[in-house]
Amino acid sequence: MKKFGIMLLAVILVVLTLGPAGQSQAAVKTIVDPSVTYSYGVLTRDIRELAAKYPDIVEYKSIGRTLYGREIWAVGLGTGRATVFFNGSHHGREWLTTTLNMYMIEQYAAAYTEGRRFEGYDVRGILDKTKIWFVPMVNPDGVTLQQTGLKSFPASVHQALIRMNEGSRNFKRWKANAQGIDPNRQYDTNWANLVNNYYSPRWMGHKGTAPVTTLENKAMVTFTYEIDPEIAVSYHSAGRILFWNFRTPAVNYSRDKRLADIFTRFTGYRQVSPAFNSNGGGGYTDWFIQRLGRPAFTPEIGIKRGETHLPVSAFPEEWRRNKKIGLWIAEEGYALWAAKPQNRINPVSLFLDGKRVEGDPAAFNESGTTYVSYKPLLTSLGYKLAWDGTSKSVTANGPQGTFRFTLGKKEAELNGQTVTSNAAPRLHEGIGYIPVRLLTQAVGAPFSVDKDTGMVSIKSP
Ligand SMILES: [Zn+2]
């Protein structure tokens, strides 16, 4: 009895000690709840809520619609010009990867908005340089069939779906889309020679009758070329392994191997040997590596336990392993982007009425556009500046009237009239810049750019 009493006291003490820490964790209410079965409906609702809560940093759009009318959502996080791409749930039963994509978006968006670091990463600095695009659920029809079974599909296709499921009404092992085509065996890389193909629609393993025929795959290919990402990460489950090489050319080997080694260090996921994987193909990562010649990864999260989804209880540990991946990949993506000659920033000197304007740099040239630091220039020209942090816009009042422009937007406003520029005002290393053509048009000042040195001279009106 006494022993029991002491034990009970010990248990109470442990609960009291752990309690506050546990509570403070729970007190931070999140939109994305990783403890629920993450459905298409939950996804759609959460994306809208995140975009409403974090309008500065989160945007979303549909990149296509499935055969059964579900949107394939893309979510953009960040304001930068370099891009990287994350996606999840190519396979129906792997929807915990959607949770992972979504949780990542929310954690980073909150840190950005609150101006805090995340696991040592400078979230603002990183997301102002790189935009991370997510397609958290590539295959919403497959996910829905896996989660709810036949009831979410028209009765007219039930028999066909049961046939694709080899006579079973239990869809828990389902990987394909709702046409019985595997979206991760559809990309046009070694498609013709894929091994272990099933020649008719099936819950897994059927590559279709030609590459990139499904609406999901068409959307992904078109969107990839549209956003032009430097690196792609395609989350799957399960096995705690990492695919990183698909017949990677020798010239890219050390670049990609370095990233794979860091990926493994963060996640503990074992790298799949290139020799083994070279027989594959048809997957997003294979395609990205081959067609774009850029690094791509397929991490398989969680420990495999049978032909079904991971339990939601697997989430906290997989999140712990992956929580830095998005910011780290964004940083690496920026380095790759900035190293390209067309993206190189060339500082040039700037003169106003023959007097040198100070700045770090005062002006620079990038891909043929000359940008100038607007603050010292507009101030010298007699303008008063007001900054609106919510809309990221500047209102300048001065001799030529009111000039209003927004970071990241090519459309500006001059005395109530819209003026459009070929490039948008933007930040570089935390300083605001504007295309010289746009600024001089607004203030009515002639300018010239020296052909040889790139030096910019502006004359006040
Ligand atoms: Zn998969």
Structure characterization notes:
With 461 residues, the protein is α+β, with helices and mostly antiparallel strands. It has 2 domains: 307 residues, Zn peptidases (Aminopeptidase, 3-Layer(aba) Sandwich); 114 residues, Copper amine oxidase-like, N-terminal domain (Copper Amine Oxidase, Chain A, domain 1, 2-Layer Sandwich). The protein has 14 helices and 23 strands. Strands 1, 2, 3, 4, 5, 6, 7, 8 and 9 form a 9-stranded mixed β-sheet that branches. A 5-stranded antiparallel β-sheet has the order 10-13-14-21-20. Helix 2 runs parallel beside helix 3. The protein starts with a helix and ends with a strand. About 3% of the residues have low confidence. Bound molecules: zinc ion (ZN). The site of zinc ion has 5 residues, from loops. Belongs to the peptidase M14 family. Keywords: Hydrolase, Metalloprotease, Protease, Signal, Zinc. It holds the Pfam family Peptidase_M14.
List keywords for this structure.
461 residues; alpha+beta; Aminopeptidase; Copper Amine Oxidase, Chain A, domain 1; 2 domains; nine-stranded mixed sheet; five-stranded antiparallel sheet; 14 helices; 23 strands; 21% strand; elongated; binds zinc ion
Question: Which helices and strands appear, and what pairs or packs with what?
Answer:
Elements: H1 2-27, H2 40-53, E1 58-65, E2 71-77, E3 82-87, H3 96-114, H4 123-127, E4 130-135, H5 140-148, H6 158-164, H7 215-227, E5 232-234, E6 236-237, E7 241-243, H8 250-267, E8 270-271, H9 274-277, H10 284-292, E9 296-301, H11 315-322, H12 325-338, E10 346-348, E11 350-352, E12 355-356, E13 363-366, E14 369-373, H13 374-380, E15 384-388, E16 393-398, E17 401-406, E18 411-414, E19 417-420, E20 426-428, E21 431-435, H14 436-443, E22 447-449, E23 456-458
Helix pairs in contact: 2-3, 3-11
